[in-house]
Design brief:
Blueprint lengths: L1 H10 L5 H14 L3 E6 L12 E5 L3 E8 L8 H19 L10 E6 L5 H13 L4 E5 L1 H9 L4 H8 L5 H38 L6 E12 L1 H4 L3 E12 L2 E10 L20 E10 L1 H7 L6 E11 L5 E9 L20 E7 H4 L2 E8 L2 E6 L4 E4 L13 H4 L3 E6 L5 E2 L8 E2 L18
Parallel strand pairs: 3-4, 4-5
Antiparallel strand pairs: 1-2, 2-3, 6-11, 6-13, 7-8, 7-12, 8-9, 9-10, 12-16, 12-17, 13-14, 14-18, 15-16
Helix pairs in contact: 1-5
Amino acid sequence: MTYETEARLKSYLDTNQLSRERLCLALLKLDKRFSNVRPRHPHGGRDGGWDIDAVFDNSQKVAGAIGFMIGANDAPDQKRDIAKKFKADAKSARFAKGDDNPPEFFIFFTNIDLTVTEERDLIDFAKSRGFAACDIYDRERMRLALDDIDGLAARIQYLNITLSEAEQASFFSRWGDDIQSVISTGFQRLERTLKRVLFLQEADDVLGNISIHYELDREYEPEEIGHFRAFCSFQLAEPKHKIFGILFGRSDDADRYREERHRPKELGIHAGMCGPQWEHMLDLEAHEAAGREQDDEKWEFRGASSSVGAKKVNKIVAFYSHDHGFFRFQPRLRLYDLNDAWFIHFLNASLAEKLAKIHVFANGYKLASYGKAGFQIDQTPFEMEVPNRFSQEELADPWVRIRGARSSSHSLHFSEWTPARFYEPFDISSLGEEGQINQ
């Protein structure tokens, strides 16, 4: 693999500054003389003349710089350019403005092959500028490190060079027991990490819907439930597309929130259900343009669904539909916009007493789940902010709030836990000739 490694170092990472820096970072970490190896600005920006920070021999501050040539061929003009960059980076690192503790050790990585004399001249230059020590990783030295057993992983990752049979044998002879230990003891951790990566990727998708499953303590007859109200209010951590909050819920009477009735009014969960939803709009731009206090907050009605009644009741589901996915004429919320949101539930008192668990779902993920130990019923009187469509007889069973067990509300923090995906997508290979899923 000697020739292939050298060839890849010459040009494989052309224009890929990020991978160059990560490759050099990995090589420096393999050098046992150095510790606390870390990048400075791998995505660009002012770096003070060097790319890598480290500590040499647990005492000396290290500045690491990188100078790669595109299509390196060791021509005289390329060597002059590398020498020029070496000197510029060394001076910048040693005399960085505002640095009261300048680095004492300078290390330089280049994909140009340098002679012993050329290296010595550059090292002497660095020392003449005040560095106590200097070291250079030229192309041949990097190749040796990458073709060593310890460097094979970095070689695969950054140069995409597979292992030969002999290298595989050496690699597993050296690391086989450690790999087996990682597999046997860390598989669950790996699985958790992969699930988190998948969630963070899919959390960037448009928010399709949210559903709250209010699980009851047993199965009830419809007559035992009668009139019911189950609503949930989400408050976002910051306004997104002028949406600051959402309110949605479920109640009896399928036509309760329709302008015109399609059937005679009949109360009770057996007769039908409705699902209204609102969005709390906050126009900060209008407020700033006005330059004065004004009412820039309002709840906007976003329609209501209707459904048939229930013959048996063991749970009630409140549903918010944000995006239907057919045509999109305006920006929409993403699933990740629910991060750090807080939410509270509003139920009629008799229904709240029957509540056993609360489950929160969105876009195919379970975001949260609470048993009785995770919530409390707040019976303090209050008024709902949305238009009232309930009679005084219905409100005789008063509103109550379901709060967190030790807080005024529940909240979502994706940095603290990873939501659980509750279904797996099918592969195309699982579909039969007629488009049916082969079980």
